[in-house]
Amino acid sequence: MSHANEISTENGYTLHIVPTEKYKTNCIVWKMKAPLEKETVTKRALLPYVLQSSTEQFKNAPLLRAYLEELYGASLFVNVGKKGEYHIMTFSLEIANEKFLSDPTPLLEKGLRLLMDILFKPHASNNAFNDKEVEQEKRTLKQRIQSLNDDKMKYSSNRLVEEMCKNEPYGLEVNGDEKEVDAITPASLYEYYQYAMQNDELDLFVVGDVDPKYVQSLCRQLVKLQPREPKVQASAHVRQDIKVNEVIEKQAIMQGKLNIGYRTGITYGDDDYYALQVFNGIFGGFSHSKLFMEVREKNSLAYYAASRLESHKGLLIVVSGIQNENYEKTLTIINEQMESMKKGDFSDDIIVQTKAVIENQLLETVDNAYGLIEILYHNVVSKKHVTVDEWLEKIKNVTREEILAVGEKVQLDTIYFLTGSEVQK
C-alpha cells in the first residue's frame, strides 16, 4: 500500500502532492496553522466562512455556488479545528478529474485557481471585507456557538477540556467566544486576514490521479507568497503533581453527562504513542472495550461510554451518558476499569482484536482522500514523519509490556459531571 506524499517547500508554504488512482475526484485542501490564542480565536473562527462566501470575481454566495456547479458540481467547504495548542483553518475543494470526462476542460487548474481566488482575492474594498457578508457570517457564528451549548454531549466535552486546560491554550473553544463576535468589524477582520496570510504556517495538499510536475508548475503560477517563520506554540507543561479536580454543574437536563480527563504526556509520533492507542482501544475505544462491556452492557449504567485520545495534546478523555443518580456508581466502575488496565487485566486475544480494529480504522480513514490528508497533516503539526505503513507496522509490534508501561503514565486529572439533580455525596 502506498500513499507517497511528495513534499516540496515553496515560497511561504509547503506543497504536498499525493498521486493516486484510488479516487475518481481530485481533492485540494489548504490548511492554515497558528497558535491557539484568546486574542485571535474568534476572528479565526469567523474568517474562513467570510472568505468562502464570495470572491473579487464572484461577489456573492449564489454567484460562487453557480460557478461551482459549472465545474461539474465541485464542492467547497471550510472548517476550523484544533490540534494540540494550534488553531487550524481548513479550506477544501473536491472536483471531478477531467481524465474521466469527455469534456477537455482543465478542471484541476480551474479548481486550484478558484481556491486561490477565495484565499487571495476576496470580496473586499478599502481594506475591509464586504459589510453585509461579515454581518451574515457573524450571525451564523453565534448560532454555531449557541448550538454547542444546546447539544449537551458536545457541551460537556467542551466543558471538561475547558476545566482541565483552564490556563492552557488547548482550553479555548475553536469557535471562539460569543461575547467577542459583535466587536469584529469588516476592517478588523481584514486586518487579521492579512496578518494570518503573512504569518500562519501554510500547507497545500493535492490528492488524486494527477501529474506531480504539472501540479507543482500550476501552484507556482497561482500561489505568490513571501517566506515566513511561523510562530511556534510552547507546549503547556505536563504537571507531575496532579491534584484531581471534580466539577459538578447542574442544568435542567434529564440525562447526566459524566466526562473524565486523564493526562498521558504522550503525543502523536512519540515512541509509545502506538502502545497508547492500543491501551485506549482496550480501555474504552471500541465496542469490545472494558468501558463498553462493564459500564454499559454488564451494569446497564450508561447510554454510551467510550474513551478517545487527543493525540496532539496527550489527553485521554472518557465520555458517558448516565442517569443522574448513578454518578458515584459509574465513576467507581470507570476507576476500577482504569486500575484493571494498569494491572494488565486483559487477555492476549483482546490485544490482537484491538490491533485489528485500529488497523481497519486506519485503512478506512485513508480510503477517503480527506481522511488521508488528515493523517498526513498529523506530521505537519507534530514535526514528525510517520507513513501510514509505518503506523500500521508499529501498531502490529506493540507488546503487552509496552501497554503496561503506558498505563503507568496515565494520570487522572479532571472529573466533570453535568447533572439535572443534586449529587448525593
Q: Order of strands side by side in the largest beta sheet? A: 1-2-8-3-5-4
- Helical fraction equals 40-55%
- Mean of residue pLDDT values: 93
Secondary-structure class: alpha+beta
Strand content: 15-25%
Explain this structure to me?
- It is globular, with a radius of gyration of 23 Å.
- Helix content is 44%, strand content 23%.
- The protein starts with 5 loop residues before the first strand and ends in a 6-residue tail after the last strand.
Q: Concise description?
A:
The protein is of the alpha+beta class.
Please give a handful of descriptors for the protein shown:
single chain, 425 residues, alpha+beta, five-stranded mixed β-sheet
Layout of secondary structure:
Layout: E1 6-10, E2 13-19, E3 25-35, H1 41-51, H2 61-70, E4 75-83, E5 86-96, H3 107-120, E6 124-125, E7 128-129, H4 131-150, H5 152-164, H6 178-181, H7 186-199, E8 201-208, H8 212-222, E9 245-250, E10 255-263, H9 273-285, H10 290-298, E11 302-310, E12 315-323, H11 327-343, H12 348-366, H13 369-382, H14 388-396, H15 400-409, E13 411-419
Parallel strand pairs: 2-8, 9-13
Antiparallel strand pairs: 1-2, 3-5, 3-8, 4-5, 6-7, 10-12, 10-13, 11-12
